[in-house]
Amino acid sequence: MKYIFKRLGFYLIAFVAAVTINFFIPRLMPGDPVQMYMAKLYQTSGKIDAETIAAVEKLFGFNRDQPLIQSYIEYVGNIFSGNWGISFSQFPLTVTEALSRGLNWTMFLMGTSLIISFIINNLLGILAAWKRGSRLDSVLTVGGQLMSNIPAVVLALLVSYTFARSEIFGIFPSGYAVTPLFRPANVMQYIGDVAYHAFLPVSCIVMLQLGGIMGMRANMINQLGEDYIAMGRAKGVPERKLMFSYGARNALLPVVTTFAMQVGFMLGGSLIIEVVFNYPGLGKVMLGALNSRDYPLMQGILLMSTILMLSANFLADMMLLILDPRLRKQGR
Amino acid sequence: MSKLLEVNNLSVDYITLKGAVRAVDNVSFSIEEEQSMGLAGESGCGKSTIAYSLMRLHRPPALIADGSIKLGGREILKMETDELRKFRWEHISMVFQSAMNCLNPVVKLEKQFFEIYKNHGITNNRSEARTLAEELIQIVGIPKERLNDYPHQFSGGMRQRVVIAMALALKPKLLIMDEPTTALDTVVQREILQRVYELKKDLKFSILFITHDLSLMMEFCDNVSIMYAGKLVEQAPSRTILKNPQHPYSYGLKNSFPSLHGEIEYMEGIPGSPLNMSNIPEGCRFQDRCFRAQDICFKVVPPRNHRGNDFYDCHNPMGTLTGSKN
Amino acid sequence: MMTMEKIEKHPLFKFLRDNPKATVGIFLIAMILILTLGAPIFTKFEAGFRSDQYRVAPNGEFILGTTQLGRDVWAQTLYGGRTSLMVGVMAGVIAVTLSTIIGITAGYFGGIVDGIITTIINIAMVIPQIPLLLIIAALMGGVSPLLIGILIGFTSWAWGARVLRSQTMSIRNREFIYSAETLGESKFRRLFAEVMPNMLSMMSSAFVGTIVYAIMAQATLEYIGFGDPLSVTWGTMLYNAQNTAALQTGAWWELLGPCLGLIVLGSGLTLINFSIDELSNPKLKAQRIMAGYYKARKAEKTYAEAGAENE
After folding, report:
1. Residue B182 is inside which H or E element, if any?
2. Which of A289, A306, B38, B134 suits a disulfide with B144, CB 3.0-4.6 Å?
3. How far is it, in rounded angstroms, from Cα A100 to Cα A90?
4. In Å, how far are A141, A217, A252 from A121, measured between CA atoms?
5. Cβ atoms C199, C167 nearer than 8 A
């Protein structure tokens, strides 16, 4: 139990740090975002009076009469009470509303990719470790790592071009999560449509994560050198069971920890992939926000990404607790 | 008593970047039924390698290069995988060096016993297996409720006893004990070994007891084999090695362990350090550290001198010089 | 006179032969370096040159075709590569310097210093880097490649710092450091003269890894539109391709140049990273050991022969 509280405490601190960074970034940037926004506003609606300026400043949290500390505390308070501001580009939606639209699809994409990637990476890692030193091992390790080091942009563009647009292989759709204007007759059709659209993006994300094979492989190799494997073999445990119930089961523990870190990398990559595939997730929201300099929304995205990261970390901590009996209450 | 285990010309190599290093070189010995044989030598001389070979537990880059190992007349090195898997633990089992690490940390003890019974076709029924395990674990003096626990919840001594219980689960004919007590304090050591000795008499199995602690071996084993740098250099009943060792190395080993009784003596060690196995000299392997080395020792491999069932490989043995005043 | 025999026995050649990953990696990088740095040799066009042939497929005159605006893709790839490389290297240098200083300090001094720094590192690791990068870039308007390099350098030191910290801590406890202490050397001197050389391999590995990441992040930033649209880098090429509907009109060659460049560079650097690992830890040459093992098992020869074959 103490363990859980310690972790939660850390995540709280990290979140506050993220909020703080979020607060200070616009203030540290050269140029005054308020001015820039006003310039845009003027172009579109021609209104610039003192009231509007004050309103915009308030939206930003740039209250010039207040001392900085007060603004900061207000800001933190707002964040924690769910008031993340109002989006400029999607006025009058609040930031939270604008985000929630994209959140579902992103969580679906990332969730699916995470599961598939976890399974594939670990299985391949186990295989590579078991056949250590063979050709297969080299191919898997080096290949996986090479795959991971291709920029997400490049992979997404190439895959999109080849499998979505070219004449020969272009069997997949080039964008969106579901076929527009399509009325599925039943749940199965809907699922099918979604899967059809998600296939390429998910494949890209999974391919980019293949570098994780090395992690599992290294853990397996460490475990395989331990005595309990030799004893298991001596006891008559069949090789396959040795690999999974003995080696992999123990090698999984450190993997769960790095799994949380993986989410971070995956997040960055998946946002890009969403952009390339025109997928209506947070990536699209982010692109819109970035292009229209919608600061509240951009900050919202940063905070949302941080929350996703922290949740993944926390989830990993919980899983570790379940999987490793040594972390539970010690002894009798 | 007839021969239970016959090892002939066993050689084991480790493949490295620079080629094959022979860790065990042409070793031959035998163990009779209900006999306990000690295998002594420094760290790295090849004792554990021999133990692993007996059960064919080696994994790359270790390789059994040559030889024959027969248990009860059956040639182990020629067995098929499935046959071998059944053979292990039923006829020959092992207590590994570090009980700390030889149990799967994430599996309850009960299940670890169940695996043994299931994999050898004794029973597929969990409660039957549980009953059998309870009997077994009580033999080594551990309460049967502890079967529900994980390995890390046991103390070192208890873990060792659990491992011994596991090793005896299928009533093997030969029990290998690889440095079973190195990590334990002397009191626990004694208790455990005492128990094993009693069990040996009840269940009638042979023991191969591997250790570098010669004094322990003296009390516990009928016969002792001494290994140096991958070769067996002497084999004799423990009493003989104690009183009248022939090989200078055996003599040095014996004198490195102080006795609790008797007068205070000046301790001798064995000068020098273990041999680098990738650089084996001509002649006797012990040449650099031997206080009885002669010219011939640097040129000719020492011959095997037999004395009944015993032997020693030396050009210039100790002869009838007696050992220390033990 | 260099005969074939002499060449084969030359230590450099032997090194290349024994380390296939390094060889391929070095070859790939060398190719990129030669092509980009020596761009004028390989193309007669300038990067900004505009011809009157819009969006033509690759042909004799334009090796990789032209863009919507009539620019030669091949020339752009070559010259753009220079900028991309420079940004990558700069980001790498900044990130490694930061992670070295932070990581070693934390690991070396321990105690409270370590506690504070570790918390900072953990927080830095938990905040997602690419969204952060994007937001900073957006807030600054478009950013020049130079600035991108600096930004990336300042946001990607966390992981390296953690690794170097644990390395420092394990080295710190080793005996030879204690012996230096008894000889009376100052803490700083010990730090540099003894601790750092041992970590050279980790540091160079981190350096290469960061360059890969930096180049990718740069391309990503520019693709989204936050690079300097007037500059020519691989990322901006992708941005332009996207914005001029290259994908939709089937102009695959516009993508090919920058994509190939990025892939080749990334792969080359990754392979080099692998070989750095292998060189510093020869036990990783598992494959060659295993090859020897299988040979010895299958062959009925004596083992002395099998061993000799491995030389």
Report:
1. none
2. B134
3. 13
4. 11, 9, 11
5. yes
- Residue of A7, A149, A157, A222 for testing the chain C interface, max C β-carbons within 10 Å: A149
Half-sphere exposure in the Cβ direction for C297 (13 Å, CA)? 14
How does residue C218 score in pLDDT terms, banded at 50, 70 and 90? confident
CB spacing of B20 vs C306 below 8 angstroms? yes
- Residue A190 zone, left/alpha/beta (φ > 0; ψ -120 to 50; rest): alpha
Distance CA B233, CA C123 (A): 61
Which residues of C are less than 8 Å from A306 in CB distance? 126-128
Tokens of A119: 């399974």
Burial class (CB in 10 A: 0-12, 13-18, 19+), B1: exposed
Angle B70-B71-B76 from CA coordinates, rounded to 5°: 55
Query: Chains near C, with 3+ CB pairs < 8 A?
Result: A, B
Residue A256 CA to residue A206 CA, distance in Å, equals: 17
**Which residues, 6+ apart, have CB-to-CB distance to C252 below 8 Å?**
A161, A166, C246
ipTM for the predicted complex comes to 0.80
Q: Give the three-state DSSP class for C71.
A: coil
Partners of residue B70 on adjacent β-strands: B6, B75
pLDDT greater than 80 at residue A3? no
Query: What secondary structure does DSSP assign to B288-309, as a single string?
Result: GG-TT--GGGGTSPPPEEEETT
Torsion from C-alpha of C5, C9, C12, C18, nearest 10 degrees:
110
How far away is chain C from the Cα of B15, in angstroms, using its nearest Cα?
Answer: 6
According to the model, what pLDDT value does residue A12 have?
86
In 3D space, the residue among C108, C103, C131, C133 whose CA is nearest the CA of residue C118 turns out to be C103
What is the DSSP-derived secondary structure letter of residue A63? -
Q: Mark the ranges of chain B whose per-residue pLDDT is less than 50.
A: 323-326
- The span from the CA of B252 to the CA of B293, in Å, is 14
Stated pTM of the model: 0.75
Nearest CB partner across the interface for B116, out of A236, A246, A331: A236
Residue C308 has pLDDT above 60, yes or no: no
**Strand pairing partners for B319?**
none
Chains with at least 3 CB pairs less than 8 angstroms from chain A = B, C
Query: What is the SS3 assignment for A201-253?
Result: HHHHHHHHHHHHHHHHHHHHHHHHCCHHHHHHHHHCCCHHHHHHHHHHHHHHH
DSSP string, B7-55: EEEEEEEEEETTEEEEEEEEEEEEEETT-EEEEE--TTSSHHHHHHHHT
